[in-house]
Every structure is written in C-alpha cells, then in structure tokens.
Write a structure and sequence with these properties.
This protein is 0% helix and 50% strand. By secondary structure, the protein is mainly beta. 34% of the residues are buried.
C-alpha cells in the first residue's frame, strides 16, 4: 500500500514560483508512474503532470506546459512539481497519485497578490 504525503504549498504572488514535493512510503516507489493533479474550489479535479516510473517520460496538461516541470528522485521516493510563472487560476489543492490507485491528501496552493 502506497502512502503519499504532499508538501510545499503556500501563498505565492502571481508570476512567482513554488516547488511541491510528494514523498511515498510503504511501496516500491520506482515501480510506479506518478502524477500531479489539482482541484480548485467548486471544480473537478484535473490532471496536471505525470512522470514514468524511471523518470524518462513526462506529460503535461496544456494549461501548464512550459511553466511546470515534474521530476522524481527514486532514491528519496519523492516526486516534485516545479511551478513557475504562476497565474491566479493555478490556485488549487494539488494532489499527487501513484498511478491512479493511490492518492495523497493534497497541499494548498494560493496565487494572489
């Protein structure tokens, strides 16, 4: 059973940057593709970015491509989401998932001046 804990959320000004982390335990982390998703208030949860188990392949939602970067450290059992040029509409609870079977509780990102 994979246990995921996200961190790194907070308040950031528009145009700013933030790096989220998601640390896994209870599993063979390197065996899982990992994903980031976000859910804004009153809206459905949406896929943001994904990375293959070995880290060699990544995929991004159109809304974040070129500004967000997903990476992973299989030694540390951690996946990251580097977010740059943040826009107010990026404010949401960000979740990581192991495949689509295991989910963390999320970390809040607020983009506001």
């Amino acid at each position: 059973q994979m246990h995921l804990v996200e961190s790194g959320g907070g308040l950031v000004q528009p145009g700013g940057s933030l790096r989220l982390s998601c640390t896994a335990s209870g599993c063979t982390f390197s065996g899982y593709g990992m994903n980031w998703h976000r859910q804004a208030p009153g809206k459905e949860r949406k896929f943001v970015a994904g990375i293959s188990s070995g880290g060699g392949s990544t995929v991004y939602a159109e809304a974040v491509r070129g500004r967000f970067t997903v990476s992973r450290d299989n030694i540390k059992s951690t996946v990251y989401l580097q977010m740059t040029s943040l826009k107010p509409e990026a404010g949401a609870v960000y979740y990581c998932s192991g495949g689509y079977d295991y989910w963390g509780r999320g970390t809040q990102v607020t983009v506001s001046s």
